[in-house]
Amino acid sequence: MKNVIIFHGTDCSPNDEYYWYTWLEDELKKNGYDVDVPHYPEINHEDIATFLPKVLEHHEFNKETILVGHSAGAPLILSILERLNTRVKLSLLVAGYSMRLEGETNDPVLQSSYDWLKIKESSKDFVFINSVDDPWGCDDKQGRIMFDKLGGIQIVKNEGHFGSRSQNLPLYRISTPQRYYPGGKMKSLRILIFGDSIGQGFYDELNGGWVQRLQRHYFTEELAGKNGVNVINLSVSGHTSEEVLSRIEFETKARSKDDTDLFTILAIGVNDSYEKVGVRRVNEVDFADNVSKIINIAKSFGGVVVLGCTACVDERLKPAAWDATLHYDNQRLKEYEDILKECAAQASATFVPLWQLINNVQGEREILPDGLHPNAEGHEVIYTAVKEALAGIV
After folding, report:
1. pLDDT-based confidence at residue 229 (cuts at 50, 70, 90)
2. Which residues have CB under 8 Å from 257's CB, separation 6+?
3. Which among 29, 41, 313, 351 is most buried, taking Cβ atoms within 10 Å?
4. Is residue 180 part of a domain?
C-alpha cells in the first residue's frame, strides 16, 4: 500500500492554515497515495520514551511507506525508524533536528543518542530540507548533522521554519527548492552527467536521449532563469569506469565555481561488462574499485546519483551487430548493476535501479532495437526514472 504519514511540529495541528500539511495531503492523494496526518498535541511535551509507543501502535509501516516530519515531527521519525522491523521507502525531514536547539533547556521529543546505523537501515532514502534563516535554529547545520549520518539528499533553502504561527510566517506549500550559501545569495546548480553512448542519446536522434530530455525539463518557460539549473552532458560513447575515473576530477574542477553547486549523475557499467574476443573489458573487482573511487571524487564536489545498468537482449548481442568481437550478457549487466548499488550504498549516494525496469518494459514492447541501445521510448523510460529521483533536489 502506497501510504504517507505526515507528522506535524510542536503545538501545530494538521489543518493549521500556517502550514503546508493540507496542501501536501491533497497533492499526494491526487497521485494515489493513502495519506494520514495525525494530530499529536503531546509531541515535544511528553517524553519520547512514553510518547513513541503510542505513535508506533497507531500506524502501519511497510516498504511503500513515506514518512514526512516537520520540526519536532522530524526527530520523532528518527525514533520511529530506530524501532521499525521493516524498511520504509522514504523519510522526508523538513526543518528537522537531532541536537538540542540553542536556548532550549528541554526537548522531550529528542533522544539522548541515536542508533544511526539502525535508522539508516530502516529507510531506503532520506531527504532533509532546512533553511539558513530558521528562527528556531532548525537550520542547515542541523540538517547537515543528519545528512552526514544517514546520507540521502539535503536541500537548503531560505524560507524560515517553513511555516510558523508564533512568528507569523505562513507557508502554504513547499516551493521549488533553491540553494543558498552563507550570506543568503542564491546559488545555481550544475548537474554533470558522466556516461557512455546511451548517455549521449544514441538511437534517439529526434529527442537527443534521456539527458537532453532532462535538459529541456529544467529549461521550461516556468523554470528558466528562476532555479539556475544547468545540465551538462559529459557522456562519451564507449567509455567505461576506467575512462570516467581518469577524467572526472579535472572535468568537474573545470566546472566548479563558488556561486554554483555541483551534482553528479553516473551512468556507467554497460561497457565495463562486455567481453571482447572472450576477455572481459573491466572485471568485477576492478569495476567496484573504479566506481568507489569515482563516487568519492564526485562527492568531494557535491551530491551524487548512481544509475544502474540498463538491460539488453542476449540473442541480439552474441555477437553485437556493430562489432562481431563484442559480446554482451543480460545477467552480467544485472551483476554489474548490483556492484553499482553496493558502491552507492557504501558511499551513502542515491541509487536508481534501471536493469529490472528496462527488462520489464522490453518484455512488453520493443525499446532495445539493436539489443543494447534504447530507442526514443526507452530513453523516455530512463528519463522518467532519473527525473523522479531528482525531484527532491531540483
Report:
1. confident
2. none
3. 351
4. no
Strands 66-70 and 3-7: parallel
Note the pLDDT tens digit of each residue in 150-189.
Answer: 988 888 777 888 887 766 666 655 544 444 333 334 457 8
In terms of Cα–Cα distance, which of 264, 231, 232 is closest to 249? 264
Nine-digit cell string for 298: 564526485
Alpha-carbon span 252 to 12, nearest angstrom: 44
Assigned C-alpha cell, 227: 532555479
3-state secondary structure of 92: strand
* Structural domain boundaries enclosing 149: 3-175
Which pTM does this prediction carry?
Answer: 0.57
Residue 116 belongs to domain with CATH number? 3.40.50.1820
- 258 & 341 share domain: yes
Which residues touch 165 (CB under 8 Å, ≥6 apart)?
11, 12, 16, 18
Condensed to tens digits (0 to 9), the pLDDT of residues 61-80 reads: 999 999 999 999 999 999 99
Give residue 210's Cα distance to chain centre. 18
Residue type for position 94: V
Single-letter amino acid, residue 257 = K
Q: What contacts 49, CB < 8 A, 6 or more positions away? A: none
Domain boundary among 119, 154, 175: 175
CATH number for position 287:
3.40.50.1110
Helices (H), the chain: 21-30, 48-58, 73-83, 116-121, 140-150, 197-200, 209-217, 241-253, 270-273, 284-299, 330-346, 355-364, 376-389
Out of 179-188, 197-206, 272-281, 357-366, pick the least confident: 179-188
2-29: average pLDDT: 89
Q: CB burial class (10 A; 0-12, 13-18, 19+) of residue 388?
A: exposed
With a cut of 80, say whether residue 103 has pLDDT above it: no
CA–CA separation, 306 vs 133, rounded Å?
31
Q: What is the pLDDT of residue 16?
A: 79
Q: Is residue 78 part of a domain?
A: yes
| Pick from 193, 201, 206, 240: nearest CA to 339 | 240
